[in-house]
Structure formats: C-alpha cells, structure tokens
Design brief:
Mean pLDDT: 82
Number of domains: 1
Shape: globular
Strand content: under 5%
Number of strands: 0
Order of helices and strands: HHHHHH
Length: about 160
C-alpha cells in the first residue's frame, strides 16, 4: 500500500482510507420494532391491571419520585429510568420486584412511618424469582442483567 504524498512529494499520514481498501460498514439495527411496544406511561401497559396494589404503588413511586441521582448516574438520556426501564420491569418479574424493593427502600427511609417490611418482601421475591429464572435456562436476557444490576444498586446504595 502506498502512502499518500503531500505537494512537496513527502509521505504523509492520513485518516482517509485508500481506494484499494474497502471500508466495511456495519448494518444498523432497526430500532422501530423495539419502540412499538413501549408506552410513555407504565399504567398503560396491558399487564398493569393485574398487578397487586402494593406493586403499582411502588412502581408509581419510582416513576414520580426517584431519579437518575438515586442510581448515581450523571444523567438519564431519554428518561430511560421512568419509561423504558419500568416497561421492561413490568414484563420480567424478578426485575419488577427488584425495582419495587428499591422504591420501597427509598420510600421507607424518607418517612417516619415507612415500612422496611415492604422492601424486604420485594427484595426476597426478586432474588427468589431471579434464582428460578437462572436455573431455568443457560441463556439469559437483558432483563436478567438489569435485575442483577438493580439488586447490586440496592446493595451498594
């Protein structure tokens, strides 16, 4: 491969690809399908009516009162925690209970009448259902990873 030369005839490095090298481009994943089932509000999810009242309360508490600062994030691009994350949680039981536990913990410490029992119950349900999910298959999903990270956030928080 011959290096490009400058006007004075000396070789110069370049960031451009020579015409002999084909630049391969990765195909971009279609994101239109991933958004079609996402709702702007978790209460619009088809699973919402079947959830227990306590779960609904803490999911709403998470959406309305917790922010990226509770997760030690610098910012939350696209309101991930209030929309996408909660929608994923509603559709994966271990994550849903982990999010409920996180919200219940913050609710309990913010009030004198806050009950740690709700936090402990949700945390136990999350760990139990996560263990069951992990034992069921060798292949794990993004939801599984998010559950583990949510539980770890509770541990270090």
């Amino acid at each position: 491969m011959k290096l490009p030369t400058s006007r004075d005839g000396k070789s110069t490095p370049t960031t451009e690809y020579p015409s002999t090298m084909a630049r391969t481009q990765r195909p971009q994943a279609s994101r239109s399908n991933s958004k079609q089932f996402m709702k702007d509000d978790i209460t619009q999810s088809p699973r919402w009516p079947g959830l227990p009242q306590s779960v609904k309360f803490y999911l709403k508490y998470h959406r309305n009162n917790l922010s990226h600062h509770h997760y030690s994030w610098k910012y939350d691009a696209g309101d991930f925690l209030k929309k996408t994350f909660l929608e994923i949680a509603i559709n994966f039981e271990p994550l849903m209970h982990a999010v409920v536990a996180f919200a219940a913990y913050h609710y309990a410490i913010s009030r004198t009448d806050g009950r740690l029992k709700d936090f402990l119950d949700a945390y136990n349900k999350s760990v139990s259902s996560l263990r069951h999910s992990l034992a069921k298959t060798d292949r794990h999903s993004l939801s599984t990873l998010l559950t583990i990270l949510q539980l770890a956030t509770i541990e270090v928080g």
